[in-house]
Amino acid sequence: MKKIYYLLFLFSFLLIKVNALEIDLKNPFIKFPKEGEYVLQGFTTVEDKLFTIFINPMEDKPIIKIFKIDDGSLVKSFSIQALGHANDVTYNNNEKKIYVVNGNGEKIVHVLDGETYKYLETKTINLPIRSMTYVSDRDLYAVRTVSVGYFLDNKFVATSNLPFIVGMNFRQDVARQGWAYNDGMLYYSTWSWIRFGGNGTNTIYVYTVDGDTVGRITTKAGIGELENVSFYEDQMILGINTYDDFIEFYKIKKPVIEPEERLENTIEEEPKKESFNYLPIIIGVSLVVVIACFIVIKKRCM
After folding, report:
1. Sheet of 49-55: strands edge to edge?
2. Which one, of 149, 153, 185, 146, lies nearest residue 169 by Cα?
3. How far out from the chain centre does Cα 203 lie?
4. What are the counts of helices (DSSP H) followed by strands (DSSP E) for the chain?
5. Mean of the per-residue pLDDT values for the chain?
6. Rounded to an integer, what distance in angstroms lies between the CA atom of residue 57 and that of residue 79?
7. What is the DSSP string of 111-125?
8. Do residues 218 and 23 lie in contact, with contact meaning Cβ atoms separated by under 8 Å?
9. Among candidates 197, 192, 244, which has minimal Cα distance to 220?
10. What is the pLDDT of residues 30-73, one digit of tens each?
11. 79-99 per-position pLDDT tens digit
């Protein structure tokens, strides 16, 4: 039954039509050249500051940089013990703690003090998570393994054996990045991976915390690799590794994401594009046929 439930969940996900907004990012509020082989990985908003992590190919001496969000000025830069790939970062504003996802398929989360930024401890959990965000109004963590999402309670125990989101980009050319939660919505950043045949565009998928797909926001190709987004007051912050070896952070007015026809005029200075993809319908119908065949075969074998 669980397999059938999963397939039906995926089928309903594929049939959802969402609107797409394309944004043309201009004038980063933070920009500086890449330091050697260090690249931006996870980042998040910590009160009125931007907490960012940069890793090298060895992943042994990450650099943390703290910026003021209001003016983009650098507050602090320091090296810290290894944090793995540091896929994603989230801030628990109730505990005043920062959680860093180790990544690389490991079941490890690193914990830092949200005020001093000192390393506190390592937590081991039962899922190999790659993205994580704190859902403050529910005191839960939304986590992603590869293409499915679960909720964990404040002790990092899954609230259900079944995922609340499935079908998040199975394609080989998609680099799956960080998650961010804001005002009832989950924002999932992805990059169309050029090395694996992608075109370099970035897509932010927007979901409700009930797992419903609401919309997506895309960037133009050529701007670089979007690692994640975070939020501060009425602004969305986007962090990018550019193709010409710069690190850039942008601030835009936070999109007011609402379902279907009301998803309009939500990002300043950006042209709006609406698209409909018939491929999900074809895939969905095929899944229904597969499920029907599975049920018939099972009955005949009984």
Report:
1. 39-46, 49-55, 63-68, 74-79
2. 146
3. 10
4. 2, 21
5. 84
6. 15
7. EEETTT--EEEEEE-
8. yes
9. 192
10. 999 999 999 999 999 999 999 999 999 999 999 999 999 999 99
11. 999 999 999 999 999 999 999
Cα–Cα dist 207/202, whole Å: 16
270-283: b (≥16 Cβ within 10 Å) or e = beeeeeeeeebeee
For residue 108, which of 122, 91, 118 has the smallest C-alpha distance?
Answer: 122
CA 158 – CA 151 distance, rounded (Å): 6
Q: For position 259, what pLDDT does the model report? A: 56
**Residue-wise pLDDT tens digits, 104-150:** 889 999 999 999 999 999 999 999 999 999 999 999 999 999 889 99
Query: Judging by DSSP bridges, how do beta strands 213-219 and 19-23 pair with one another?
Result: parallel
Q: What percent of the chain has pLDDT over 70?
A: 77
Segment among 33-37, 211-215, 222-226, 234-238 with least mean pLDDT: 211-215
Q: Is a pLDDT exceeding 60 seen at residue 270?
A: no
pTM of model > 0.90: no
Instruction: Yes or no: say if 215 and 21 are a contact pair by the CB < 8 Å rule.
Output: yes
What kind of architecture, by CATH, is found in domain 22-275?
Answer: 5 Propeller (2.115)
Listed in sequence order, the DSSP H helices in the chain are: 2-14, 279-301
CB-CB contact of 249 with 49 (8 Å)? no
Measured CA to CA, the distance from residue 246 to residue 259 in angstroms comes to 35
Cβ neighbours of residue 114 closer than 8 Å, sequence gap 6 or more: 46, 47, 91, 92, 93, 95, 96, 97, 98
Q: Cα separation of 238 and 220, whole Å?
A: 14
Q: Where are the domains of the chain?
A: 1-17+277-302, 22-275
* Integer CA distances (angstroms), 154 to 55, 112, 135, 158, 185, in order: 28, 16, 10, 10, 19
Binned at pLDDT 50, 70 and 90, residue 290 comes out as low
